[in-house]
């Protein structure tokens, strides 16, 4: 057994060419990871282009021009895992490159896997497979089709889709309302030339971070520095912050109809709380009390007492200060469910919180935060979120601040939260199919 | 206190095993430095166990589909309220799931492990079911069933099993149907509980940074039965080696068709490490045939017939086994056609030994990667334990895997006559 227990913290190594490099030292895992993030503003003119180019890069790079070559390479590297794609965090669209490889301790030879992994990612990002001075045309066409399939296939997962749709309708006049993979029309308009120019510009100017998990030595740090110094980059562009403060005038209601057996009721709320506010910690507790687990008011009242739903919960989009309440119910139960949900919000506004609910919520949030430490990807995501929000919490300080939240703080934050949009995904027939 | 220590020095892994007088086994897999502690209490009882002979009786008992899953929901209710509340008061997350062959109760926590563990041991041993609570649960499970009815990924999966199997209960949804659960009563639930929740049919696993001796002592003190039970006879209908039908289609609101296809496997008399060997060989063959480094994958991807949603797997249990592969495709029939041709070609040409060696090595690396996750360790351990092996036995199976054996499995498993295709597409 490895007994040396190293406390894992985010350690900034250096910055080179506008790329910040961080290490999270750990020796508990069988693998190490490298994560590279390029951050951009979510913008209707670039959303589809940003979504498309990583999938073209994934198809081939210098020395490994096809998917087959790439996968042969990964298989030879003890089944290393590589992928890339995009995520939306608030009004940022983030391009993520990911590599996970077996730690040198568990491989049989003396090859240094870190260097191979890092070199591979550098080639994927900066030296794509080109033809006639642009991307391989065949790859661009195929990946456009794949991306369109993702966009069109959004409705397959009704739970996810109904929440996204609720946020989308709620923020249709804000950048956050954009779907991170773009629209079919936007994808159709992309040409190889336009995409390649866009990629070159973005990769050279977007602010970027590299997170390495696992143990790395001085030689490896020097190796990263050398590789990054070869990259041509300009001064990184400045990014916008998410719009969080927005006054709600009237609650808007929307309904979509599909061929479904179960309806989805989603309610979108604006919290008017920014991640760097003091109120943010109270908001986390508010969300936990409302719908953050089996002890929560929503679970207890909508599911356990009324038997209306199998799933019901609330969740935060902290980067944008939004909250969604989601549930799957019988199509005839919309009004009843909505009434019970609104009642739970009222209970919290009036401070009607039992000792049990309060304690269970604090403990459950603490367990959730500390559990993140057992996944390299979650730890990286936690620190990336801190950077995006300009906050400086560790998991421990976050827990401490949450523990200091009082019932008065919760009432105060509850007063700021406003219902904005009610979205209902229901059956075409509008008849119960019991 | 007697327990065994089984060590895998090269990989920094070990586990401890303790057997309670009732026949219950408890396994502790220490993961030093991890924050979470993940404990499970499981029974070898899943959705396929719908007909059986209760120990001491002569006549078979047949129960409604979905009852194992229904019982899972009902165990959370205790005489003094829901046990979920007690876990929540300790800040831990309880959960449970029912699969074809097991029902697993679990919690994960970072603090107060022994208090949580006590709750787990107690609630699984003490059912409290009332007529009224059974009726209320029918509403909640009804919503769960409707949720899965709207999930095309779930439907395409079960439809494939309906195509592969004529009679075996693996072809039915784990949660049953609204009709089948309407027949469930308090009495039947208790009857199933008494049959399948005897400690000799159960397993406890704890994964995380815990003191194994304290865990074993707690099990010794909390298990209420000390007699071993006789074996439950599980009855499965006759199932021929042929598939039920080669094609099944359902219309649902999807933009791109989703397909799963697979082979029925009737190699069901394997024991011990042989099970792992066969499973690993089949999974390697799937990768050799259509994994991301194969020529077939490249061709299908380049023609736009598959995308990155394409995946594959193999399941092997005591009474059924099948492979399954698929994803989204604009033309599932053409994918099937190409796979069929490739199998025929490889049967003629023979498999490539270098590809086998490379994929074996990669697969071992990916196995080691699974050891990062407490949940994965626990899940693999439970699944294999009831088949008489442990997940760490894989390490030896990897080292001993031979190319000749792979070739034999290729001939037996990939039989075109036993292949079925399930498609979900828009009307």
TrEMBL record, chain A:
GO terms for molecular function: metal ion binding. Residues 190-362 form the Peptidase M16 C-terminal domain. SUPFAM superfamilies: LuxS/MPP-like metallohydrolase. InterPro entries: Metalloenz_LuxS/M16, MPP/UQCRC_Complex, Peptidase_M16_C. PANTHER family: INACTIVE METALLOPROTEASE YMFF-RELATED, METALLOPROTEASE. This is Peptidase M16 domain protein. The lineage of its organism: Bacteria, Bacillati, Bacillota, Clostridia, Eubacteriales.
Automatic annotation (TrEMBL), chain B:
Residues 65-177 form the Peptidase M16 N-terminal domain. One of its GO terms (molecular function) is metal ion binding. It comes from the Bacteria. Pfam families: Peptidase_M16, Peptidase_M16_C. Residues 184-361 form the Peptidase M16 C-terminal domain. SUPFAM superfamilies: LuxS/MPP-like metallohydrolase. Signal peptide: none annotated. NCBIfam families: YfmH_fam. This is Peptidase M16 domain protein.
